[in-house]
Amino acid sequence: MGEVSHKSHRAEYFKVFIYLTVLTVVELIVPNLPLSKFAKGSSLTFLALGKAAIVGWSYMHLKEETKWLRFITLIPLSAFIYTLVVILESLYR
Fold first, then answer.
1. Which end of the chain is less crowded, N or C, counting CB atoms within 10 A of the terminal residue's CB?
2. What is the pLDDT of residues 32-84, one digit of tens each?
3. Domain residue extents for the chain
């Protein structure tokens, strides 16, 4: 049988590590900023959502999946958006 070549993902994983590190440092800085609780909470929520997207895209290999499977992964995102809208609606009622 023929040999199967293996592509190293080291450089790609290192980039992802750097992105996640930067976002984590920003998450540590946000609570100390002179912002409202809502702004801090929103910022931390979106940073966490961004980190989850990066992990899903890179480490769970969503970038290599079919378009349909990637579309299905948007369902939890739509639930998040719905929850956010309901929370905002109740805050400004």
1. N
2. 999 998 889 889 988 998 898 888 878 777 777 777 777 777 787 788 788 88
3. 10-91
